[in-house]
Amino acid sequence: MALLTEEDVRRMSGGGTRGPVVVRAGEVLTPAARDWLREKGVEVVYPQGQTEGGERPSARYRTISGAVLSEKPEHMTHLKGNILVDKDHPRIAFRGCIDSLEAEILLAQQTCAGAGYPTLAQELEEVLAFVRRFIRFDVLDEPVGEIELCGYGPAELREYSHYPEKHLGQPHFMPHYTDSPAILAVNKVRTVVRRTELAAYAAFRDADGGVKRPDMILGLNRLSSLMWIMMIKLKAGKYPREVK
């Protein structure tokens, strides 16, 4: 049986900024890890039949088709609790896109801060916190809730991104290699957001082409709008720049 230490759960939850922490079969939280998770308010998901202390009547796993397995095959991973799916399952692919999106946001923050745009880097921190919640939305079936990002509600995000010249004095433009590193970094984030939105549709669509999680798709769609607004504001010189 493997022990999950406080250091382990800090890493798994991004220092308490995202959740849930999924305890897999055969893993047990140390007392220090449990105390830290409670203090930070991080959700913990246990395998079906396992308690906080690690006791479980059976070490078996189940697949989404209902098959029972005594051990986890290497080609499978946890969807939720002790439910296993193949690693190319659309929900797992979507979670991988979220991971890639987080990494791209961090790189954009580094670029923007280095280019003298601390305000933009801080706005991207708010974006990062929003994106990190999507794993929780998925695993725990939590609703996205009201969307407000960097002071914009969903209607404003759509309006400003569609009519930037009206609201920000800068028309739509095609990114070019001569644009600033900050613009190109935010543009890269925008493209990864769009790819993640498509992965979300693949993960949550039903047999009739509808979607089971329209709130998640809407959230990603509006996030894409925000990335375009940030690019427009950079192009228009709306962000204060600190020259070192």
Describe the structure.
Pfam families: Cob_adeno_trans. One of its GO terms (molecular function) is corrinoid adenosyltransferase activity. This is Putative ATP:cob(I)alamin adenosyltransferase. This protein has 244 residues and is of the alpha/beta class. The protein folds into two domains: 2-86, no CATH class; 90-236, Hypothetical Protein Ta1238, Chain: A (Up-down Bundle). The protein has nine helices and eight strands. It has helices at 6-12, 31-40, 90-114, 118-132, 134-139, 154-162, 164-168, 181-204, 214-235; strands at 2-4, 21-22, 27-29, 44-45, 61-63, 68-69, 76-80, 83-86. The strands form three sheets. It has a four-stranded mixed beta sheet, with no helix packed on it. Strands 1-3 form a two-stranded parallel ribbon. The chain has a two-stranded parallel ribbon with strand order 2-4. β7 and β8 form a beta hairpin. α1 (6-12) runs parallel beside α2 (31-40), α3 runs antiparallel to α4 and α6 crosses α9 (214-235).
